[in-house]
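Protein 1 of 2
SEQ + STRUCT:
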Amino acid sequence: MSTITIKNLTKSFESTPVLREFNEVFSDGEFVTLLGPSGCGKTTMLRIIAGFEVPTTGEVWIDDRLVSGGKTFVPPEHRNIGMVFQSYAVWPHMNVFDNVAYPLAIRHAAKAEIKTRVEQLLETVHLSQYAERFPSQLSGGQQQRIALARALLAQPKVLLLDEPLSNLDAKLRESMRFEIKEITKSLGITVVYVTHDQTEAMAMSDRILLINNGVVQQSGTPSEIYNNPANPFVADFLGKVDFFPGTAEGGRIRLSGWKAELPYPEMKQHGPVVVAIRPENIRMTRGEEGIPARIERLYYLGDTCDYRVRAGEETVRVIADGFSSRTFNRGDDVRLQVREFIVFPDDGSTQEQLMIRT
């Protein structure tokens, strides 16, 4: 469909910088998510691509056409983009068919063309059987699909989605993630999606840009960012993680708080380090191998069980499957086996990095 190129872009509101030196290329047909805490600049970036905001410096290109930058500014209606907002923005007095058809109707397109294209899109978003119903007769997810179909009606080069699922309940939000991903992939459209929900980003994206304080902290596939975070902020924002101070030397990391050591043959870091351990990467056993610990608390969540375990002087979080609650109980002595961990140099800035800045 289309490629978006962003060059040396900054955005400030009066004297407050919101985006700082943003350089990215969103490839043709790619599903890119701008992820980050509220106020980090992700929606501002989306609005700049759409043409609702003008960059302070830098350029935005759609394919080989400059749409923002210098003295050039192409208004939103001439950028050939579709946009879906957090609110459904459907007309309550129009039925589903007329809501979707509206962009073509106001352009006075031929009735036959409108009928053909609307029916095709209603089939794509699984709303054909509801064509004559009004929004008040539909669920939130169905209303959001109306907005999606309407955005796709003009066959845009780019689809921009600004937290479109945040108003839905948890179960509906989960099903809509997969529906949106399947629909956009089937159409081969380039998508830029904004969310602060890490699960949405992981489930839907080809690539994630994690932003904090207007700066892209890391860009990569969900797997790359989750398993190889660039810094403690990325590790902390995407997934669950605990940080422990340690010392790397002689092929091992000594965790003084745990009163234990972890094997570290690669020795990519030396001296003082911060060890990031995801709770699902700790295995709890009753065997003789592993770090001695005692279960202090547990929270049964059905599919998982969330433990707080005392190892030395540290409280360690362990997440295991729900069946583990039948084996392990509060007060049990256990052994911990750390299957995977991430090591960052300890330069004294970890707590500063973990701060969410808006």
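Protein 2 of 2
SEQ + STRUCT:
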Amino acid sequence: MVLTVIEDFNGARDDSSPQRRLAEVRERAQGFRQRMLELAPVTYMRSFKLVRVPYPTRYAFRDAFSLPTPYLHIVNRLFVVQFSTTEGVKTLLVSPSDIEGNAATPFFARIAQALPKPLQGVGQSVLAPIVATVEECLGHIGLSPADVDYVTYDHLHTQDLRKWLGTDKAPGYFPNAKLLVMRQEWESALGLLPTQADWYCPGGLDVDPERVILLDGDTMLGESVAIIHTPGHTEGNQSIVTHTDEGLFVTSENGVGPDSYAPERSQIPGLARYARTLGAEVVLNGNTLEGSVDQYISMVAEKTIAGPSKRNPDFPNVLCSSEFEAYWLFPGVSPTFGVGDVCFGRLQSRARV
């Protein structure tokens, strides 16, 4: 079996008290973590940098960041994951970004004009440099487009899916792939309010509905990968939990890096003080603030499931889909710790076989 329902978190958010909801979700997350660690790790996982994107610090760290630096850089990554099932090894792509198509997202279409005057007119090669395309990454490891069974994203901000899944006018790059997405995320994205629409690519979801698998809750992929509903950044936000040789990696964009999940240990100006003053466990990535209470609870769940990083035990094993990295253009702000790229296991390709 490829997809199975997970019931570990059913009803965990039903209580009217946010404190009790948080306590219940934390306890469930601890149990879920132990259960996943007893299962087999993925056959293969590798990440690739795609593009560096300027992002307002006021969104990335909300009220916690204390310097006047207006922007930082987040790095969009592609994750190639293979996992075993009763139907054989399946290939999942997490966050395959169509860099050209995504650029039509209203917020990023305006960002050059919104930057301070000294940065006006700076070309993409400096402001938002492309490291690699999805096609180049897959070609580098010898993975055929026909090998891809599923694609997924932690949420659908900025995503143009037409290139990958096709339209009624043109076939998609991945002929066999289907999208795995929470029903809430999909239906929200088809009926956006103005504050939401600024972050979604116009027409980006105009794909054949037969290529879309709507998830009504937490779902296990084989024995090694789980998709957990973690609302907050968007109503249908989801986290991808991957069991690897380095433990459980949790991927989402509720936060922009490990500092967001352990602000008390952060050296980013303002974050530790913010954590001490409020007693806050996490710092939200909040551009749309669709559900800040849910997002806080979701981030605690994510870092509880992840557990401590083997690369730096002071921070949880959270591997954000858009991870904050230092960049010379935006001085004064750099992560205390970043996971960077990962590679585990050995790729299997049906095309080669």
